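[INFO] parsing input record for IucA/IucC family siderophore biosynthesis protein
[DEBUG] input buffer:
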Amino acid sequence: MTFISPSESIKHLDNKVWSKMNRLHLKKIISEFSHECLLKPKLLSTEDDWGLYQLTPNDISIAYHFRAKIMHLDHWFIDVDSIKKYDKEISKPLDSIKFIIEFKDILGFSDAVLPMYLEEISSTLYGSCYVYSLGEPSAKKLTEADYQTIEHAMIAGHPCFVANNGRVGFDADDYRRYAPESADPFSLIWLAGHKSNTEFTSVTGLNYKDMMLEELGDDLHASYTSILTSKKINPEEYIFFPVHPWQWYNKLAIIFASDIANDLLIYLGCSLDKYLPQQSIRTFFNISSPNKRYVKTSLSILNMGFTRGMSPYYMRTTPSINEWVEKIVIEDSYLQACNFIILKEEATVGYTNRYYQNATEADNDYKKMSCALWRESPMKKIKPNQKLMTMAALLHIDMYGESLLSELIKASKISVTDWVKKYIYSYLSPLLHCFYKYDMRFMPHGENIILVLEDHVPVNIILKDIGEEVAVNKKEGLPESVKRIGRQVSDELRILSIYTQIFDCFFRFLSPILVEHCDCKEDDFWHIAADCIHTYQQQFPEFKDKYDSCNLFAPEVIKTCLNRLQIRNNRKMINTSNSHKEQQLSGVLKNPLANFK
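[DEBUG] output buffer:
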């Protein structure tokens, strides 16, 4: 059944909006590709702190001109209104897709990668136009909005990636049903998998039956059980689990047809609870019962360098890994003083299709099509006077050009300096402790961090997505169920988990917003970050050797290039089991913290 009419699916593609989104997107393209040294703009002249730059592709009749400041960490802060395109000195409209084609050889695209990359760019623009066409809520209104309203108002996506909203596999109807910015609640589909192919794993103290009753309720659980008994099938031989509706219609019903025909996989029905997709698109917040767990499922669309499946092998050890990390957090007095919280992934189900599992030993997306996990709800982690907000929101600029960060600071009624200090200490301090004391790193980018706010001021953070993204820099001494997260890498690469994930992928974008919207000097921001690090190191002098070997105040930082990964292979950027090995590096960055060592 069609959700929207053909005309409705393109209603937001107005020429004026399309032009505006292309201009904003081209600003990001030039900024990020120049940051990664894929493009090398030519300086034509300078005026005050600004430079006038030119970019010319291999077709020398074409030239792009723009004004920019180069900030710390080689961040290209571009005046969006200054971007001009000329072809034989005749002004031309800005076009992101055409820009990629014009510079394809300079950027290093292969013929195999380029067409799908262009599709991802077009999809990114399509989504930007849709969010922009909604208009509201403004940045000011978002300061008073609830957790999910803020979650679904985000426009920009990942700050580094240029093609960050590809969602290859979704059609226009799917977009309006399942994209987080559409904010349209939907039910999940529930299946029963035979135990010969299905494995349930959970944290200590949570058994399968209790888990199902908590998620489904007595009546729905009984109804699903009766479906099996009516088929003269023993329910004790099956495990219930949810799947995304798109996954069922587009993948499982067809690709798993043999398992369905042979009652290894049985359709049960749709959830009574309604869910909203989060920014990560395959994770869902229960809006019918907000204190219930998040649900995360396999979703075989291509988005930002990966098909978003989930591995049954990873599911098997995910609860144990979460328990192991939580034990460290709970038993550490400093992390408790920081009120550092992780959202445990408490239970998982992995369904294995034997055809695809046995067809080849090589890892592939067909082996990752039918998994689910349940993660704690953050709503149970806060006090009545507190509210939640994705950290990605600190980078949000609304359709009127206003910053949510500046509006939060205004609403807090404290100074910019005090607000930034509270934020950085809340965010950075526990991550430093995990890194230096336990050799443990996460992937604490904006979408993976939930800020806890009191009176619009951050007081602590909640970290999610533990099982897939935690790593420990050792292989010996880990429990058997945790061994897959052991990574032995050099200090030079290990420290990139802070340099890249925190400094380059978040602070690099946060600082210019503070400069432009909050009248905060760039060096003042980095000085606060340096003070936070010094404060931590003074409190824990016993880790001095680690401070020296993984020196956050080193003069230079290795530059990790994320877009280069996607340009090289936009179907699978890296092998996630050994991501350090496949990093794309390009020179070094001057470390802004070095001035405050």
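[INFO] The chain has a mean pLDDT of 94.
[INFO] shutting down worker
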